[in-house]
Design brief:
By secondary structure, this protein is of the alpha+beta class. About 20% of the residues lie in helices and about 40% in strands.
Amino acid sequence: MKGLPFLKMEAVGNSFVLVFEEDLPPGTDLSKLAIALCAHHTGVGSDGLLILGESHIADARMRMFNPDGTEDFCGNGLLLSSSLVLERIGRQSANIEAQGGAIVPVEMRGGLFVELGEPRFDAASVPFDAPVGELRDYPLAIDGHEVTIASMRAGSTHTIIRCDQLPEDELFFKLSPLIENHAIFPERTSVIWAQNLGENRLRIRIWERGAGETLGCGTGACAATVESIRRGESVSPVIVESKGGESTVEWRPGQKMRLSAAMSEVFQGVVESIALF
């Protein structure tokens, strides 16, 4: 065994370990690999594991696993993966197969943009368990607090909490995991606290399901933008600030979401310990 080569990459501070499927030993348990590689003290350390490989229906296939081993859809992961795919095939556009067989178009257009589909708000798509058509302006009582939420499927499940100021650590770390794991969300939810800074700018603080606080989240930036535009408070395109930097989101009702963000390769390495995979 020569070890497992990997790339450490990031988009607006949202960090990933990327592995090419062709380099994996046969029968690798990808959930266990994600848990091992994402661990900050004993692994490489990241917000998720990306597996990039061949596809029978697109130019490439990307899978993303959270640090807890669960598989999910990931906007920033698609940005990072597609940058490598475009470089490999020598084109300005491509299609990437994502979770569930979704085909994600990507293109260079004054920057790299990925098209993440249309947001969904119904109970079956989000999903949520409540006697309403959609969770919007919905009062959620939790641990002595009441927050007003809006939930949607924007690639992944997100719950938006609009606020005049982003929460301080005590409130953020107290409520975010409780909302993530609330019984109303059978598949859990990411939690996006969102502050409006004008019709073309938002600031967010992110708690991702399966990962905890992250510096950036592509689908979360999309979800916050969609909710703000639906309320008439923002106009596309919207710059979304997070702790890791700025993302650009384009969306109009009835159209698909488009995402772009600054990204970089941090370093390359080889995992030599067979215990990790």
